[in-house]
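Collaborator request, handled under Task 6.
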Amino acid sequence: MAANTRATVVDIHNNMVLELSNYMEDEDFNQLKLLFNNNPLTPVHMRSINSVGNLFTILMSKKVISYGNYATLVRKLEPINPSLCDIIQKCTEDIAKETEDKPDTSSTQGAQPRIDAANTQEQQDTAKKTKIKEIHAEMITSLSTWINPKLPTDWRNFQTLMDAHLSNVEVFGKDVTCLDDICRALLGKGIIAYGKYDKLRSAVVKIHVEAANIVDDATSKISAI
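Structure tokens returned to the collaborator:
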């Protein structure tokens, strides 16, 4: 990509990020962040990312998105706020127009791409792992509407049930502010795993049958991959 073209692409991207920052509500931003939890956002990222710009920087560095390629972001954002996806689509189209018919002449002309079987398998495995983590994150997001500190009775009951599996700090500590914090501890200790949520389900079914259905749905989807 020529230097002047790249500069224009970066400008288009930055203008999109600015526009999203102006229109995205805090609740939408927090939900979007949660959908990237563990994939690729780490606990440190989850605590430190406080703006749309910060989030995009991390997603770019982790190669979740790139200039003109925002498919993963759109897929996660669309259920939250479809109108914001129009901004991303416009940016995608503008970048495509800027880069079309401008091949990178620095590469060897006429060279045919070689597809290495091992690399292809690795890409497939990576795609599967990513999909599994996305299903897990969506499950946590859905469960959080039923079990969270804003519903104190259900939240306390859930904490009490989890006290059998985790330490007091991991369940009742000051840093435990949402369902995801406890589920992250369960994952870390191997009490649950992606697609294996027996201990979690046995707890949430005692609080809401619908919550158990959410776990069952995620388990089925992961098993099918």
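The cover message to the collaborator said: "The chain has two domains: 3-99, 134-223. The domain at 134-223 is CATH 1.10.533 (Death Domain, Fas). Please let us know whether this matches your experimental observations."
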